[in-house]
């Protein structure tokens, strides 16, 4: 069962007649997990498209909010799917077909989780780039405006002094306004940087969780591979035993044929001997 099968809906077209209750339960579990893996794969692809818009003209608060919401939903779905798959994998599956289904589901989930990890790393790196740019821009802008300082009174006529003093006051007021605006911008940038740093921390925590999930899936793959190796070893042993049994049967048949031939020769010799003795006695 592949992602294409799920997308076409062909997973629901299998004939259920003749299946036991246990087979039906297993089939429903496999179909549910397959749909969830498909949903994770589609969600990761969507998040990848949104992350590609970070640090562009399309980068908005709504975009980042969408990325955050979809990431949280996908991470929860990954956790639930992994837990359910572990339960299904832990059951003793007698049929080889069941084992192969579980193994394929595990491989598909491992693949999409790895892709999800990659998207999360890209998002974290894009957010770090934004923080670095914001810090650099804040430092540059803060240095562009000098603090208003003491100025010496202008010498000259009273009119010139008054005009120079008014010009000086206007210049100081303009600088004060610029500093106020700049301080507001700096405060906004600092708040934005703090928010982005929080996003980075949250993304990194999510990556750590995905790493743990990835290790769990890897453990399941290892256990399943060991189980398959054991099955193959047992099958090889059975085949070897069957071959030996066939050889023993051939040997037994050959011995039986030889024994029958020997008995026939002895009986023939005995009959001839009796006939000869009778002929001698009657002559």
Keywords summarizing the entry:
283 residues; mainly alpha; Methane Monooxygenase Hydroxylase, Chain G, domain 1; 5 helices
| Biggest pleated sheet | none
What's the mean pLDDT score? 75
What is the domain tally?
Answer: 1
Q: What is the rounded distance between the termini?
A: 92 Å
- Secondary structure class reads mainly alpha
CATH architecture: Up-down Bundle
Outline, from the CA principal axes? rod-shaped
How much beta, percentage-wise?
Answer: under 5%
Point out poorly predicted stretches.
5-14, 148-155
**Annotation field: number of helices:** 5
Count of DSSP E strands?
0
Instruction: Supply the CATH class.
Output: Mainly Alpha
CA radius of gyration: 42 Å
Report helical residue fraction.
Answer: over 70%
CATH topology: Methane Monooxygenase Hydroxylase, Chain G, domain 1
The helix-strand sequence is: HHHHH
GO molecular function, one term: SNAP receptor activity
Protein name: t-SNARE coiled-coil homology domain-containing protein
Pfam family, one: SNARE
Organism: Coemansia erecta
